[in-house]
Amino acid sequence: MTLTTEWQDTYRIGVPEIDHQHQYFLLLIQRLEKMLHSDPPLAHLLDSVDELIKYAAFHFKSEENMMRFAHYPDLFNHTVSHLKLLEQLRLQSLKLAHLDPDPEDLIQFLVKWFLDHTTGEDLDFKLFLDSQTRPDH
Ligand SMILES: [Fe+2]
């Protein structure tokens, strides 16, 4: 199945700050996809991937701080998972620099990576926030 880089309403988890950052992250993937189709110099490509990695690192730190503020009990596991995701992303960047991957594969990897993160773990955080604000708690 080919994954689209267009923002879908189903990606929204319902925490505005996180959703905004996710939308921007997807925009960076879209830009990269457009760029790949114009056969750019490798250095330009790596700069864009670097921007993506830095934004992901910022986003993760931002989420971890939000989770700490909310006393999220799963903060440690979530932080470990962020570290692993960043490593995967850095590894892909390294492959891009040293091997000759299919650009389409890279985009598919990025979108899948994005979806696993947003619709998996971030949704768990949203459910936790909901459970904290319900009147019976
Ligand atoms: Fe996130």
Q: What structural category do the secondary elements indicate?
A: mainly alpha
Overall tally of structural domains: 1
In this entry the ligands are: fe (ii) ion
* Top-tier CATH class: Mainly Alpha
Strand content: under 5%
Which sheet architecture does the biggest sheet show? Answer: none
| Alpha-carbon distance between the two ends | 41 Å
Report low-confidence residues grouped into runs of 5 or more. Answer: none
The CATH topology is Four Helix Bundle (Hemerythrin (Met), subunit A)
Count of DSSP E strands?
Answer: 0
Q: Fraction of residues in helices?
A: over 70%
Radius of gyration: 16 Å
What string, H for helix and E for strand, traces the elements in order? HHHH
> Counting H and I runs of at least 4 residues, what is the number of helices?
4
CATH arch. level architecture? Up-down Bundle
Provide the CATH superfamily.
Hemerythrin-like
Average pLDDT for all residues: 87
Query: What spatial form do the alpha-carbon principal axes imply?
Result: elongated
In short:
The chain has helices at residues 16-37, 42-69, 75-98, 103-133. The chain is mostly helical.
